[in-house]
Every structure is written in C-alpha cells, then in structure tokens.
Design brief:
single chain, 568 residues, alpha/beta, Chitobiase, domain 2, TIM Barrel, 2 domains, eight-stranded parallel β-barrel, seven-stranded mixed beta sheet, 15 helices, 29% helix, binds ligand TNX
C-alpha cells in the first residue's frame, strides 16, 4: 500500500496560508490558488511571492550583465548559463545599467531580516532585469529563477533563434528550509568527478544547496586516504554486481579530485558533506585493512577490526546489508577512522561530517558496542571542528549526541508508528533532523512496479513511488511530535546498487528531485493528490520537461505529468 500522511497533518496543513505556487494579487490582499494562474511562469521551486505584470523584457545581442564586487562571480555564472543558448556575448560590466541589461546587486536592505542568507528580490521590467540579494548565494538563487523565466531553449547547448523574452514580474523569494540536499552513493557504483559535477549542475537549477556524498560502503571505498593506500588499492576495485572483477570495475577519487568537486560545488553554492559510513556498511574497509600488518599506523594485528559476521571477511558484491562492522574496541579501528575523519574534514569547508551509523543489527554489534563507537566517533568529528551528522539510528539508546548534531530520518514510518522513535529520540537528544523518509525521498526506488525494468529497488515502494509520492507530504508533520524548529530540511537520496551510468542516475533523479526541491524551498501549503498546489506543480513540471530535454538531461516521463511536445 502507498503510504499517506496521517489525516492529522492534512488538517493542520489546511489551515496554512496558501502561497506556494500561487500568484499573490497586486494588492497583496488575497493569495489565489496556484491552479487559477495558468499563465504564471513555470518556476520550480515555486517562489514565496510572485506578482505577474504586463509586458515583457527582451534580452538582446547588446545586453550586458551589470555587477560589482561580490556580485561579479555570480554574474559570471549567469553569463555561462545564458551564452550557449543565446549566442550573445553578455559581458559582465560594472555599470551603470542600460536598457536590456540584467543587473545583479548585493543589497542587504532589500531583503527582510531572517531571509538574508538566501533571499532575493527579482524585478523584471520591460527596460531591464534587477536582481537584489543580501548575499551572493541569494543572487545565485535568483539567477536560477531568471533561467526559468526565459524560454526553455535557454538550456540548449547551441544558439537558438528564439526571442529571449521574460514576462514582467516581481518576485520576492526565500527558502522555507536552510537544508535542501541531494545524496549520491558513489560506493555501490563508482561515479567519476566529471559525472558528479554534471549532476551538481543539474540539481543546482532547483536551488539544491547540499551535496551529501556517500563515499564508502561494503562494496567500495572511493577516496584516497594518505597513510592507508590499501583502502583504494584493494577497497576501490569492485562495485555491486562485480563478478570475478570482470564488470563494474569500481574506481576512486584522488584527494585533489575531491577538492576540485568541493570547489565546483561551492561555485554553485552547494556545500559538500562527506560520509564514510560506520560502524556497519564497512566490508570494503575491512577487506582492505584486516591484513595490513606492515602499516606503521596500525599495531601489526589489524585483524581485530573485523566484527562482521564473516571470519575471515570476504567480498560480497551483492546488495546485501547488515553483515559487516568495524570493531568498536579495536585500537586499529580508531587509527583508521581518525585518519579518515581528519583528512576528509580538512578538505571539506562545510560544517558537517557524516559518520553514517545505519543498519547495524544487534547480531553484529550489541547496543553498547554501537553506542560506544558512535559516541567516540562523534567526539572526534567535533574535535576536528565539524558538526556530526548521521542516519537517525545514531539516536538509539546509549548515544550522546554533541550539540549541533544532525540526524537524517530515512525510515518510511510516519505518525507515531514503530520506527519514528529514531526521529523523536534524536530531537530529545538535542539533534536537528533532515527528513528523507525512503518512501518519499529515496530516488533509488522504482517509479512503478515495473518502471523501469532493471533499475531501482522496491523495499520502500512496493507499488512504486512516482512524483505524487515525492510531492504530497510534509517534512514537519511526517513524524508526530516533531516541530518546525526541529527540521533543518529535506534530502533526496540516490543509492546506487542498481545504477551505473549518468543516464540511469538522471532517469531516477528527475523529475522526482523537483518535488523535493519544492518541498524544501517553497512555503508550506496543502500538498495532497487532489490539491491545487499539486496540480499546479504538475503544470510547471510539464514545462520543466522541455527544459530538461533542451539541456540533454534524461528523465522519467511519468504519466502523472501532462508533458508537452518536446519538439522545438
Ligand atoms: C538502506 S537508508 C540503506 C542503504 C541502501 C538503501 C537502498 C540507509 C541509511 N541505508 O544502505 O542503499 O536502503 O534503498
């Protein structure tokens, strides 16, 4: 059965203000339902407030991008975005602006307090486009909106002969949640830095601002750690499905490649959160290190890191989970983990380090062992200057979560069902939550039972999880007893047991990520199968399909969306 949020949350949400996707009337007195505005531009995520005017702005071969100081890097990004499709030069100049120009300005006073991190105000007038924000990040968010106000062909890789007009509009926008994440598992199937950068470009369009990178799992360890060369020499050579090492050969990143991806993400205002999952999901580390008897960082007897069910350990390239664990009381375990954490935190400017913590059955480690490991590891993360993050099991009995800890809730359980205590316990221990319930946010789940035929898992979505399932839920009301202030945001997770190529990844991500991006960004509203917000979202998604097609992004053409003719 599909899961539906409890009625209680629907009733509460019904009392909320209706603004998402809606066009607020010029007088500001009434906010109309989104579906009543068929001509509103197809923005995803829907802005907090938009007022459509009359007329249009036209970008011309003479148009320039006017920017100064901290606005300049964002202006250059915009130029990069608009050049291929228009074929215009669009020089970045310091002003003053003329008609047909787009001007980007850092202006604190334009944005209300409390919205300054990412808020922006965008005015499209017939004589020019004026974007203001308190921060470069806010400008970047506004730039994504500008891209969506232009004709869909703006995403084409080569110049298109269309009039580059935008509707006259006033938009005042800011995110509902600070954390809007995309998680990618490059452990189950390796992805190159280039592939990942392409995906970052694609998700940035929807104002995603967190990239959670799952770097290690039973089947592979994907980044060089100095002092432990076997982690990649041995640990990175396979993938899920590797049979006798003849296919899916694995791979790994150098530290320079990791730094480059972090910088690439930062240019798009995306913060990278590295994750090396522990103490479970660790067969690749164990297989790499349990015979590393000559390593001066270990004590000559590294076999004692292995608390898996298998003695000795052996490779298992299936998608099995819950059989491997690092031993919490082995000094060698800590020599390895300290080194990994030190090097990854040093290369990651963001505030978080994710220690994993999921799926360790008590047949593998008992609760005390588990809690000991999580507590000790969280202290190391804190000492290295980061906030600890982990899957919500890190709130289980015996753990103490340092201030600032973030727990990611992935269980499909809702309301007050069994399983939700991982979320409520985390909050009781002072943690904040990222909501990623698997049946609403796991991008690796099939869209429909047989769609697609050989991609995706079904454990959280036996009947499939299509766009409706990703859109029609609310992060605050999903688990009983959680409050607004407990929730930092949402995340879409692409686990890669079945996903090999960039194409396959895109197909599973889009168009479901758009739903999560809207839930994370746009104001709270009633989101149900019959709601006006959902109908309006589908209308906007149909246009977005043309944008994705123009950009060469693969996606699932769900029957839920009235896709338009992709021919241009
Ligand atoms: C559960 S959710 C896992 C992953 C799998 C995923 C597949 C979580 C924290 N662990 O190890 O890849 O399901 O959907």
């Amino acid at each position: 059965m599909r899961h539906h949020p409890p009625l209680r949350s629907v009733a509460v949400a019904a009392a909320a203000v209706l603004t998402a996707g809606g066009t607020v009337s010029v007088a500001g007195a009434s906010a109309s339902t989104p579906s009543a505005q068929p001509n509103a531009p197809a923005l995803i995520p829907a802005p907090a407030q938009e007022v459509l005017g009359n007329g249009s702005f036209a970008l011309t071969p003479q148009s320039r991008i006017v920017a100064r100081g901290m606005a300049v890097p964002v202006a250059r990004e915009l130029r990069q975005d608009l050049r291929p499709g228009t074929g215009y030069r669009l020089p970045v100049v310091s002003g003053p602006g003329a008609s047909h120009d787009i001007s980007l300005r850092i202006d604190r006073s334009a944005i209300p307090g409390g919205q300054r991190r990412e808020g922006y105000v965008l005015d499209v007038r017939d004589g020019g486009v004026f974007l203001r924000a308190a921060t470069p990040h806010g400008l970047f968010d506004g730039v994504q909106t500008i891209r969506q106000l232009l004709p869909v062909d703006i995403n084409a890789p080569t110049p298109q002969a269309v009039p580059w007009t935008m509707p006259v509009i006033h938009i005042a926008d800011h995110p509902r949640f600070a954390y809007r994440g995309f998680m990618l598992d490059i452990a189950r199937h390796y992805k190159s830095p280039g592939t990942v950068e392409r995906l970052l470009d694609e998700v940035a369009r929807y104002k995603i601002n967190i990239f959670h990178l799952h770097l290690s799992d039973d089947q592979g360890f994907r980044i060089v750690i100095n002092g432990f060369p076997r982690l990649t020499r041995i640990g990175a050579q396979g993938s899920v499905g590797t049979d006798g090492r003849t296919k899916d050969p694995g791979g790994f990143w150098t530290q320079q490649q990791y730094r480059d991806v972090v910088a690439y993400a930062a240019q798009r205002f995306i913060t990278v959160i590295p994750e090396v999952d522990t103490p479970g999901h660790n067969n690749a580390i164990i297989m790499s290190e349990y015979n590393d008897t000559q390593n001066p960082r270990l004590n000559g007897h590294p076999q004692d890191i292995n608390c898996s069910l298998n003695h000795p350990p052996h490779w298992n390239y299936t998608g099995d989970v819950g059989y491997s664990a690092l031993c919490p009381h082995s000094a060698n375990t800590w020599a390895i983990l300290r080194t990994i954490i030190r090097q990854l935190t040093a290369m990651s400017p963001g505030p978080f380090y994710d220690l994993g913590g999921d799926e360790v059955p008590t047949t593998v480690l008992n609760q005390q062992q588990y809690a000991y490991l999580v507590n000790r590891e969280a202290r190391i993360v804190t000492r290295d200057g980061k906030r600890a993050m982990g899957w919500a099991e890190i709130s289980s009995p015996g753990t103490q979560l340092p201030p600032g800890t973030v727990a990611e809730y992935w269980n499909p359980a809702s309301g007050s069902s069994a399983g939700t205590e991982s979320a409520t316990d985390a909050v009781a221990k002072g943690a904040r939550l990222v909501m990623a319930p698997a049946n609403h946010a796991y991008l690796d789940q099939k869209y429909a039972p047989n769609t697609p035929p050989d991609l995706g898992l079904t454990w959280a979505c036996p009947n499939g999880c299509d766009v409706d399932q990703f859109y029609n839920w609310d992060p605050i009301h999903y688990v009983s007893g959680i409050h607004r202030s407990d929730v930092m945001g949402v995340e879409g997770a692409l686990w890669e047991e079945t996903i090999r190529s960039l194409r396959e990844a895109e197909y599973m991500i889009f168009p479901r990520l758009q739903a999560l991006a809207e839930i994370g960004w746009s104001p709270r509203t009633v989101r149900t199968a019959g709601s006006a917000a959902y109908a309006d979202f589908l209308r906007r998604l149909a246009v977005d399909g043309q944008r994705m097609a123009a950009a060469g992004i693969d996606f699932y053409r769900t029957p839920e969306v009235p896709w338009m003719d992709a021919a241009r």
